[in-house]
Amino acid sequence: MLDRVSNTPVLPPEIARRRTFAIISHPDAGKTTLTEKFLLFGGAIQMAGQVRAKGEARRTRSDFMQMEKDRGISVSASAMSFDYGKNRFNLVDTPGHSDFSEDTYRTLTAVDAAVMVIDGAKGVESQTQKLFEVCRMRDLPILTFCNKMDRESRDVFEIIDEIQENLAIDVTPASWPIGIGRDFIGCYDLLQDRLEIMDRADRNKVAESVKINGLDDPKLADHVPAELLEKLREEIELVRELMPAMDQQALLDGTLTPIWFGSAINSFGVKELMDGISNFGPEPQVQSAEPRKVSPDEKTVAGFVFKVQANMDPKHRDRVAFVRLASGHFKRGMKLTHVRTKKVMTIANPVLFLASDRELAEEAWAGDIIGIPNHGQLRIGDTLTEGEAIRVTGIPSFAPELLQVVRAGDPMKSKHLEKALMQFAEEGAAKVFKPSIGSGFIVGVVGALQFEVLASRIELEYGLPVRFEPSQFTSARWVHGPKAAVETFANANKAHIAHDHDGDIVYLTRLQWDIDRIERDHTDLTLSATKEMM
Ligand code: GDP
Fold first, then answer.
1. Which segments cross the bilayer (predicted)?
2. Which atom of ligand 1 is found nearest the CA of 56?
């Protein structure tokens, strides 16, 4: 059934109430703090500070290593489900550090919306811009939270201008701050014509809201000092004149972002933002796939793997595949077809990630994220269905930008190293190439910090000290073309050829000139910087 106005499916209530989203930000803008407050108001934790204490993906390397040690726990922070009012929120965590952006980009394929956090003193920062562009590619609706308004911040009009200019999206203020820095007292809620007063004394308390009757209500003067009130009235008048009003369809189309001003650490503005997610959505969306799209209201279950985490418990070498359900009503024990291998899997122990713990998922609906423990069958990009051969599309794979040779500290252990590397390659943590000539492996990553994290994980999870060394190559290209032509090419260029973890042929070089020449001389071959996740 289609809604007559929007022409979108009318979803069953259990699906329609789901809100699956990620928070994106530049490091330090307040993503962790905001996440904590979401969980607090969602009743998922009792006290703010728990997320931090558990070592969520942190800014610094040492913190990240600690998180690696705490894997079992940190993983529950990868996708957190909790109820807020009538809605079920699925908050999917994105790693904060820019070096993990590949993971972040894939995560964004599993959500229906993003909350963009910016620091009121800094505005749009480099990482915000990059992440925003990925959301844009997918037309993801974006809700903006301008944080740290309790401190000296930039001029509000300036911040809004900057978002409009740099990100090319219309902005509509959902709230408007009153006073700046130490004089900040709260916000005027433009959506509900309410005054929200911040309580600096109790950081976990929800702000007091004062129902008023528009900006001329004399009650305003009881709460807002005269000079701030005058300024507020002027500014709101300007806002209403110059800026677009809230428009749900424009938000859903990704052309308009509502912005809330607040202070995550003071729990201020957070509930209004959560209400915004509840009220404006979006609901679970249609998923692009081949040969046909998947709509959330379909009766049968379909889902896809957007993240794999290996060795969550080093004793068991298990892996958890994070699956976003694209359609249907999933029940524990269901048999699903793994489309890539055409094998049927019984999903006996699905995990639902409630903020405090992992729990067996008895059931889940389109929009939810479930974890499926497995021994390596499930890979990023895989689709699970009730039998139909559908393949979800649009999960990006990135060209490795940095290549290094990895060697086991103990040369006798190179077989072990191979096994460890293959696991990380399948998990999507790195690209691994085995050169045709010579020993050792070449590892390709997107950000330099990934090398250190890999070294630490290989040592921690496999008891294998390794070292990374510079490689003679700087670029890797997958060689595509007719099988015979690819093989002839590979045999003639052995010194430059390697195989990836799937056995596919990769050309390694340090000269762009080489790549151009090959493409000119071998018109039947293409050299591609990425490989679609299959
Ligand atoms: P993340 O790197 O984006 O996850 O940022 P965090 O949530 O860890 O916050 C970075 C720093 O900003 C921490 O020291 C927080 O305590 C602080 N912070 C977060 N929200 C606020 C806020 O509303 N006001 C102020 N003054 N500081 C904040």
1. none
2. 4
Please tell me the number of Cα atoms within 13 Å of 259 on its side-chain side: 28
Q: Ligand 1 centre from 28 Cα, in Å?
A: 6
Ligand 1 atom closest to Cα of 26? 3
The length of the chain in residues reads: 534
Ligand 1: nearest atom to the Cα of 25:
3
The rounded radius of gyration (Å) of the Cα atoms in the chain is 25
Question: Could you report the per-residue pLDDT of 227-255, keeping only the tens digit for each?
Answer: 999 999 999 999 999 999 999 999 999 99
Contacts of 347 (CB under 8 A, 6+ apart): 330, 332, 333, 334, 335, 336, 372
10 Å CB burial of residue 522 (0-12, 13-18, 19+) is: middle
Cα(231)–Cα(240) distance, rounded to whole angstroms?
A: 14
Cα 264 to ligand 1 centroid, rounded to whole Å: 7
**Ligand 1 atom, smallest distance to 36 CA:** 7
Cα distance between residue 180 and residue 151, in whole Å: 7
Q: Where are the alpha helices (DSSP H) in 243-294?
A: 248-253, 270-280
Residue 204 has pLDDT above 90, yes or no: no
d(CA 363, CA 67): 29
Question: Is there a contact between 409 and 466 (Cβ–Cβ < 8 Å)?
Answer: yes
Distance CA(13)–CA(329), nearest Å, equals 12
CA nearest 95: which of 55, 125, 135, 124?
A: 55
Q: How many angstroms from the chain centroid is the CA of residue 17? A: 21
Which amino acid residue places its CA nearest to atom 15 of ligand 1?
A: 30
Q: With 70 as the cut, is the pLDDT of residue 384 above it?
A: yes
pLDDT tens digits for range 125-171: 888 888 888 888 888 999 999 999 999 999 999 999 999 999 999 99
Least confident stretch, 277-281, 381-385, 395-399, 418-422? 395-399
Tokens 């050792």, located at residue: 440
26 annotated among ligand-binding-site residues: yes
Decide if 271 contacts 279 (C-beta within 8 A).
no
Tokens of 494: 């052995």
Q: Would you say 72 is a known binding-site residue?
A: no
Ligand 1 first shell, C-beta below 6 A:
25, 27-33, 59, 96, 147-148, 150-151, 263-266
